[in-house]
C-alpha cells in the first residue's frame, strides 16, 4: 500500500457548485453575462498558438495589471486563478506545522490549500455572519505565518470596513503575511468596503488577491493575481506551477482588463438584482445578510440541504453548506425570479 500523508486522509475534498444539465445554475458565483465583447475575438485570434508554451512570466498581463492598479510590475504575481495564487502565497511562507489563520466559515479552498502546503489550519468562528477580526488577531501566535481575510466573505457575503481592517493590520506582527482576498471587489460598495490595496498596500506584509473568474467572466480560463511587496511577489512567482497561466488566459485577461466600463455596467446590473433578490427573500420572511458580493447567503442551518433539494427539483441549482446555510449566486433577472418562486414554494411545504 502506498503511504499517503496523514494530513491528507483527514482532508475533505473541495465541493464545487453542481452543474446539472438543463437547470439554472446559481451555485458557483460565476458571471451570468458570458464573455466580455472583446474577449471572444481575442481568444479566437490566439487559439492557433497553443502548440507553444505560454510566456512564463506573463509579461503583457503583468504590465497591464501594473498599469491598471498604478503599481510597479515587480509587485504583481499571477496564477491559474486566485485559488492558485493563495496556494503560491502559502508555499512561500509556510514550513511544516506552521499555522494559517482564517475565519470560518469562509472560502472552502483555504483549509485545503493550507493542508496541502503542510500548514495547520486555524479556523476562527465568525461573529454572526461576519469575520471576527479581533478574534482572528488574537488567534495569531508565534507559529502563525499567514492570515486570510476574505473581504467580502464567501459564502456569508458580508464585508468588514476600513477602520476594522486597519486596526486588525496594526495588531498583526509584521512578519505574518495578511492576505486580503478580494475576489468580489467589483460588487462591493466602495463607500462601505475598503479597497485593500489603497488602504494597506504600502505595508510589506499585506497582499491583495484579485481574480478574473467573477466580474470579468473568465472562470473557465483560470487566471488570478496578487499585488504584494516586490520581495513577496518574487517568492510567489517561484512557487507557481511553471506555465500554469495559459497563453489564452493571459490574452483574455488583458482584453478583459480593457473593458472596465462593461465590467462595471454588468456588476451594477448584478448589484441591482442582488437588491431585488434580498428584498424579495426578506418579504418572504427569510433572514438575508446585506451582501457585498454577487451572491446572497441564507443562514437556514439544519434546513439548508432540504432547501437546496427543493430548488434542485424546481430546476435551480444553489450551493448548500449543510447545517449552516445556502449560498445563491445572483443570476439573470429571469433566473432570480425562478429562484424566488422556489423560495416562496418551499415555505408552503408540509
Ligand atoms: C471565487 C473565489 C476566488 C477565486 O477563484 P479562482 O477562480 O481560483 O480565481 C478566490 N477567493 C474567493 C473567496 C472566491 O470566492
Give a verbal description of the structure.
It is a single chain. By secondary structure, this protein is an alpha/beta fold. It has two domains: 6-30 and 261-347, Alpha-Beta Complex (Aspartate Aminotransferase, domain 1), CATH 3.90.1150.10; 37-257, Aspartate Aminotransferase, domain 2. Helices cover 39% and strands 15% of the residues. The chain is built from 13 helices and twelve strands. It has helices spanning 6-9, 37-46, 59-69, 81-93, 109-116, 133-138, 162-171, 196-200, 230-238, 247-257, 260-283, 304-313, 333-346; strands spanning 24-25, 76-79, 99-104, 120-125, 144-150, 177-181, 206-211, 224-227, 295-298, 316-317, 319-321, 325-329. The strands form three sheets. The chain has a seven-stranded mixed beta sheet with strand order 2-8-7-6-5-3-4, with helices on both faces. A three-stranded antiparallel beta sheet has the order 9-12-11, covered by helices on one side. Strands 1-10 form a two-stranded parallel ribbon. Strand 3, helix 5 (109-116) and strand 4 form a beta-alpha-beta unit. Helix 11 packs parallel to helix 13. The protein is globular. Residues 29, 81-83, 107, 150, 154, 181, 183, 211, 213-214, 219, 224 line the site of pyridoxal-5'-phosphate (PLP).
Amino acid at each position: 500500500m502506498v503511504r499517503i500523508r496523514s494530513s491528507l486522509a483527514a482532508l475533505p475534498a473541495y465541493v464545487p457548485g453542481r452543474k446539472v444539465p438543463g437547470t439554472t445554475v446559481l451555485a458557483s458565483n460565476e458571471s451570468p453575462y458570458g464573455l466580455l465583447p472583446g474577449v471572444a475575438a481575442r481568444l479566437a485570434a490566439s487559439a492557433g498558438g497553443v502548440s507553444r508554451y505560454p510566456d512564463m512570466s506573463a509579461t503583457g498581463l503583468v504590465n497591464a495589471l501594473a498599469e491598471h492598479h498604478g503599481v510597479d510590475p515587480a509587485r504583481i504575481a499571477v496564477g491559474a486563478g486566485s485559488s492558485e495564487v493563495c496556494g503560491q502565497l502559502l508555499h512561500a511562507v509556510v514550513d511544516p506545522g506552521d499555522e494559517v489563520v482564517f475565519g470560518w466559515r469562509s472560502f472552502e479552498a483555504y483549509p485545503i490549500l493550507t493542508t496541502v502546503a503542510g500548514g495547520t489550519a486555524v479556523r476562527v468562528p465568525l461573529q454572526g455572519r461576519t469575520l471576527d477580526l479581533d478574534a482572528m488577531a488574537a488567534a495569531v501566535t508565534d507559529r502563525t505565518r499567514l492570515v486570510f481575510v476574505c473581504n467580502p466573505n464567501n459564502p456569508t457575503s458580508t464585508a468588514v470596513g476600513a477602520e476594522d481592517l486597519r486596526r486588525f493590520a496594526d495588531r498583526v506582527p509584521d512578519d505574518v503575511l495578511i492576505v486580503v482576498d478580494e475576489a468580489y471587489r467589483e460588487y462591493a460598495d466602495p463607500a462601505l468596503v475598503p479597497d485593500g490595496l489603497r488602504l494597506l498596500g504600502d505595508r510589506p506584509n499585506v497582499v491583495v488577491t484579485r481574480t478574473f473568474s467573477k466580474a470579468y467572466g473568465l472562470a473557465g480560463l483560470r487566471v488570478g493575481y496578487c499585488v504584494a511587496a516586490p520581495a513577496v511577489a518574487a517568492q510567489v512567482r517561484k512557487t507557481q506551477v511553471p506555465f500554469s497561466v495559459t497563453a489564452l488566459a493571459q490574452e483574455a485577461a488583458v482584453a478583459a482588463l480593457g473593458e472596465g466600463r462593461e465590467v462595471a455596467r454588468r456588476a451594477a446590473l448584478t448589484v441591482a438584482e442582488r437588491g431585488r433578490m434580498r428584498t424579495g427573500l426578506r418579504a418572504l420572511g427569510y433572514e438575508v445578510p446585506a451582501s457585498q458580493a454577487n451572491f446572497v447567503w441564507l443562514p437556514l442551518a439544519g434546513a439548508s440541504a432540504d432547501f437546496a433539494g427543493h430548488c434542485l427539483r424546481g430546476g435551480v441549482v444553489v450551493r448548500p453548506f449543510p447545517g449552516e446555510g445556502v449560498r445563491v449566486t445572483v443570476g439573470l433577472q429571469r433566473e432570480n425570479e425562478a429562484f424566488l418562486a422556489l423560495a416562496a414554494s418551499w415555505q408552503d411545504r408540509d
